[in-house]
Amino acid sequence: MISVKDLTKIYKVHERQGNFIKDVLFRKFKRVEAVREVSFSLERNELVGFIGPNGAGKTTTLKILSGILYPTSGQVFVDGFTPFEKKPAFLKQIAFVMGQRNQLIWDLPTRDSLQLQKTIYEVSDLEYKNNVQELTSLLDCQNLLDKPVKTLSLGERMKMELVMGLLYRPRIVFFDEPTIGLDIFSQSAIRDFIKEYQSETKSTIILTSHYLEDVKRLAKRLIIINKGSIVYNGSLSNIIEQYSLEKHVRVTLDKTVNETEIRRINVPFMYTHPKITFSIKRGVLPEKIKLITQTLPFSDLTVEDETIEDIIKSFFEEQRNK
After folding, report:
1. For residue 300, what pLDDT is reported?
2. 144 near 108, Cβ under 8 Å?
3. What pLDDT is recorded for position 317?
4. Of 18, 55, 98, 119, whose CB count within 10 A is highest?
């Protein structure tokens, strides 16, 4: 469905020389590689997490895949099309939903923007009615259609942006930070929607997000980009297994325990009676669990992986040390 080979994007950036005359009349430029020889592919009905630090090249890559930017070199095919040719048949199959960019007309109700989108993408009356009903039902936002966009909260606007972007049922969707700035309830609602939408439409999705919980909940495969180059392309479970060095053991005590007894097990990662959290190396986990059961009176004990943020942080620390 998506094929990228040796994709490179170089920008010419004005370099200030500290002299007004030179900066105006004799401008100096430097070459900045936003993306460097990136290669990957996606199959139909695949959802991939595409992550990396700020400036890594994520959004640049997505803009090339959607035809917004022209690459400096390399080959890109999306559903058999060359994106930057911007053929109508191609544009009707893709959507680019950005959490930091509004498509909706600010002063008008969302329904008016949807009518415009319907006309642009030549959506039939019946298809329009069915799609609006289904999308707003999935997002539980039917009551927002006739409210001016400027009166909506950030979470409500993001729901309307999703309805707008997916109105014509694209087969390929690029989500760029769809949950940015949202509260935890709105984040959860957007995640559930993306999962349900992909399940129903069998669409191919690339998801970028700085909220790595989005990626963990939605993607089985992960592509990590750093300084314009791919540094990991594989399953999410593999990277968790390889870089999750510790487990979080959470214990709820039945009664107060001497702190010396607690420290016999491990120095607590967090301790607010009656709850204790230990961060324990995977290799010694069985013996530590045994020691907990022999030493501490508890009513509940759970073992959890490190957060996905900590795992990716460990990955990048290893990359820096290479």
Report:
1. 92
2. no
3. 81
4. 98
Q: In DSSP terms, which residues pair with 85 in a beta bridge?
A: none
How is residue 214 written in tokens?
């989005």
- Which tens digits make up the pLDDT trace of 197-229? 999 999 999 999 888 888 988 999 999 999 899
The segments of the chain whose pLDDT lies below 70 read 322
Listed in sequence order, the DSSP H helices in the chain are 20-25, 58-65, 88-91, 110-120, 125-139, 154-165, 184-201, 212-218, 236-243, 259-265, 285-295, 308-321
What pLDDT was estimated at residue 322?
A: 66
Q: What do you get for the CA distance between the two ends of the chain, in Å? A: 34
**φ and ψ of 310, to 5 deg:** -65, -40
pLDDT reported for residue 102 = 82
Q: Please, what is the Cα angle at 236 between 232 and 238, to 5 degrees?
A: 80
Instruction: Give me the amino acid identity at 56.
Output: A
Query: Maximum Cα–Cα distance for the chain, whole Å?
Result: 78
Domains detected in the chain? 42-241 (3.40.50.300), 246-305 (3.30.70.260)
Q: Give this prediction's pTM.
A: 0.82
86: left (phi over 0), alpha (psi -120 to 50) or beta: left
316: tokens are: 């990048």
Edge-to-edge, what's the strand order for the sheet holding 246-253?
Answer: 270-272, 275-281, 246-253, 298-305
